[in-house]
Amino acid sequence: MCGIVGYVGSKQAVPILLEGLKRLEYRGYDSAGIAVHDGTAIQIAKAKGRLTVLEEKLSRRGLNGTLGIGHTRWATHGKPSDINSHPHTNQSGEIALVHNGIIENYRSLKEWLQREGYFFVSETDTEVVAHLINHFYQGDLVAAVQRALDKIEGSYALGVIARAHPDRVV
Description:
Glutamine Phosphoribosylpyrophosphate, subunit 1, domain 1, four-stranded antiparallel beta sheet, three-stranded antiparallel beta sheet, alpha+beta
């Protein structure tokens, strides 16, 4: 079980995302993270441990932007660590996502993606989804997410952002 939150608006996203994560922290104490689109790129901050660890990290390194996603993690695939913390990205960092649930067929999808040339840095089922969306991405984020979801088996919820879409959370 995890908590996910997203924001698109005119205010700075970080305080709103953190407030949402505070309300969802009971859904996961293993780690927390956010991804914020600054209008040009996606910036990520994540940390193993409770939300206060992430807040401390953000107090030293601010993130600016009016769009973002956030996550509190209760580890199911992969031990609690900074690397396994969400958000996860595709290899180029141009697509970021948070996920709650279980991807039942992640092993077979991961093996297929590795044969296609993708490499993985985490032990999570979520990173598989990031690469799968990237595999299908041809400029239309919604279509890429839909095609990826057609391949996924399990129960889950996602929040996805992309560098090329600075005004959209899917």
